[in-house]
Design goal:
By secondary structure, the chain is mainly beta. Among the domains are: 100-144, no CATH class; 567-652, Arc Repressor Mutant, subunit A. It has a seven-stranded antiparallel β-sheet, with no helix packed on it. A hairpin with a 5-residue loop joins strand 5 and strand 6.
Length: 653
């Protein structure tokens, strides 16, 4: 054997040296695959390193230090090692760790000379505690030696015997069995043995194996207070405290009695204050069909009690023979209340028509009834309907039951009246006339002694009084209109008050009657300020003006300015054409002027223009203001007097 070892290497993955590259005993290392190769004595290449293809024979054993692992598999899946304290056989890969004996001898686990577990081929698996067997598998299940403690319960999956109480099999030493019977948990006692249920040593329930009777005990577990008599098929409750049922109670009949004065006979309770379903009592027919229900439920703010009925409605009687009916609620929502004999409904709610009838029915064809109907009756609105053959009334009575006020309708004459203090004050007759203080339209004749007011749409409104003012209009506060007159929605005039005076007119044309100064004054009706108005016009004139005083026009110097001497009017007066004429609308002849001729001489004395017409083609006639001629005539007279005086003085000379 050579004393010098030469190694070659390669960093190429999966590279394997050839015989030509090596000599016998020379080593080649593939650093990428972590594999070692050499040439054997026959010139072949063998692999030595991490995955030798031949067996490794270690006659003297393999010694590995602590935490030095003997690994098996391409990924070191199986590891056997010692960490200095404990020894490990570890499957670090994805598969299972399998212990298998091929000769059927079994697998045994020991520790410190004591047996821990034995696994026998075609036999039992035994688990030991302190070298003593405690649990063994059998052909039918398991055998347990000692007492079993089960923190998560026992799962018995069998339709057979189940869990025997007392040991052995049913009929021998066992006194009972807990088993699965057709998918149900069954507790069965042996023969006629009874079954007791206790908590903390205190009896709570006892079922008699011979009679089938079941007893429920009070808090001490000594005296049954709730008892099922199997032979009598009866449930008995004794003592004080009542019966509390959680869930649904179904029974053919229930009789509840109470010997205590003022005690609670029956009580249904739901302790969950947030439960919107609440407590309820259901009435069933033909299985599970609910035909009625009384329910107490939480509506989000408080508890309320509801009644439900089936399709046949709800009837309430005050006698067991059911002849005295008091209330009937039909399935369609109609509600009827009955009179004292319980035979005839006198208060009726029609749910579909949404009407309430008192004293009769709400049939549109009924007659001769005395009834009150409240709600939507004609389909056009809602309100109250009083039905009678002669008259209907609403009376308002004083404390002594005497009628003080009344709203009355007479069906015969078709009028409605209103009373106060026992006397009729107002009436609306069949023609729609509103009569105040009278019961007859005779007031409209305005003759005789009939007094009162008649207001009628589309007719004259009349008020007649004998020894008092028929109408008074009183305005409080600021000045303004008392009465306004409109034509087709447009104001045409008004009567109002202005500084304690009466003003009549329209717009900027009005007159004030001033009693303090005994005068009639032109004013604007809009704000009461001073204005000037005409009496008549060129076409519509007053005939005569009778005065006990004079005609006064404004002439105060304080109203004038730029005062100048008048021009000569002598020639103007001489040029005036005085004529005698006859008016076309009468045979009367008068002396005077022709307006347009005078207008050429004294323009301010004539109003209007010759041959003037308005926008409708109507003539607008001219008029003369005689007062405007007085200054002209006076000036001409003065000039004439001066000339006369000159002539007289010349004659005297």
């Amino acid at each position: 054997m050579a004393t010098t070892i030469v190694t070659k290497n390669s960093s190429t993955a999966s590279a394997v040296p050839t015989a030509a590259q090596l000599v016998q005993g020379e080593l080649a290392v593939n650093v990428a695959d972590k594999r070692i190769y050499t040439e054997n004595n026959v010139g072949g290449i063998v692999e030595l390193g991490t995955n030798p293809s031949a067996e490794i024979v270690a006659n003297g054993g393999i010694a590995l230090p602590d935490n030095g692992k003997a690994t098996f598999g391409a990924g070191d899946d199986l590891q056997i090692y010692h960490d200095g304290s404990n020894s490990y056989v570890q499957d670090a890969g994805d598969g299972a760790l399998i212990l298998n004996t091929t000769n059927g001898g079994g697998v045994y686990v020991y520790s410190a000379g004591e047996t821990m577990a034995t696994f026998n081929s075609n036999g039992a698996v035994n688990l030991y505690y302190d070298n003593a067997a405690k649990l063994a598998t059998t052909a039918t299940g398991i055998d347990v030696t000692g007492t079993g403690s089960y923190s998560s319960g026992i799962n018995i999956n069998s339709n057979g015997v189940g869990l025997l109480i007392g040991g052995g099999t049913t009929g021998s030493t066992a006194i009972g069995v807990v088993k699965n019977s057709a998918g149900r948990m069954t507790v069965d006692t042996d023969g006629t043995r009874s079954l007791d249920l206790s908590t903390g040593g205190t009896k709570r329930l006892s079922a008699n194996g011979s009679t089938g009777d079941i007893s429920f005990y009070e808090d001490t577990g000594t005296t049954p207070k709730f008892f099922w008599d199997a032979s009598a098929e009866k449930l008995n409750l004794t003592g004080v405290g009542g019966l509390d049922v959680t869930g649904t109670a179904t029974m053919d009949g229930l009789s509840v009695s109470d010997s205590q004065a003022g005690g609670v006979t029956a009580q249904i309770q739901n302790s969950n204050s947030t439960q919107t379903g609440g407590s309820r009592l259901d009435f069933l027919f033909s299985g599970s069909t609910v035909t009625g229900r009384i329910q107490n439920r939480f509506n989000g703010a408080d508890f309320q009690t509801d009644w439900y009925t089936g399709n046949d409605g709800l009837e309430i009687f005050t006698d067991l023979a059911k002849t005295e009916k008091r209330l009937d609620i039909a399935s369609n929502g109609d509600i009827s209340f009955y009179e004292d004999t319980g035979t005839t409904a006198k208060l009726f709610w029609d749910a579909s028509e949404e009407t309430l009838t008192v004293g009769g029915d709400d049939s549109a064809t009924s007659s001769g009834l005395k009834s009150l109907i409240l709600g939507e009756y004609t389909g056009t609105g809602s309100g109250a309907v009083f039905r009678a053959s002669s008259a209907s009334a609403i009376n308002f009575e004083d404390s002594n039951a005497s009628t003080a006020g009344r709203l009355y309708y007479n069906h015969t004459s078709d009028y409605m009246s209103f009373n106060t203090a026992g006397t009729e004050r107002m009436r609306i007759d069949s023609a729609g006339n509103l009569l105040l203080g009278t019961t007859s339209v005779a007031v409209a004749s305005q003759t005789g002694t009939t007094q009162g007011i008649r207001l009628a749409g589309g007719a004259d409104n009349i008020q007649v009084a004998s020894n008092s003012t028929p109408a008074i209009f009183n305005k409080l506060g600021a000045d303004g209109g008392l009465i306004q007159f409109n034509k087709s929605g447009t104001t045409v005039g008004s009567i109002g008050a202005n500084a304690g005076r009466l003003i009549i007119g329209t717009g900027n044309t009005g007159i004030i009657f001033d009693s303090s100064n005994q005068s009639i004054i032109p004013r604007k009706t809009s704000d009461g300020t001073t204005t000037t108005v005409d009496l008549g016009d060129t076409d519509d004139r007053f005939r005569n003006l009778y005065l006990s005083g004079g005609v006064i026009t404004s002439s105060d110097y304080r109203l004038k300015e730029d005062v100048q001497p008048m021009q000569s009017f002598a020639d103007t007066v001489k040029a005036m054409n005085l004529v005698n004429f006859k008016w076309k609308n009468s045979d009367k002849r008068e002396d005077g002027f022709i307006a347009h001729e005078l207008q050429e001489l004294v323009p301010n004395a004539v109003k209007g223009n010759k041959d003037e017409v308005n926008e409708n083609g109507d003539n607008q006639y001219q008029g003369i203001d005689p007062l405007k001629l007085i200054p002209v005539l006076t000036k001409a007279l003065q000039e004439a007097l001066v000339r006369i005086e000159i002539l007289e003085s010349n004659l005297e000379v």
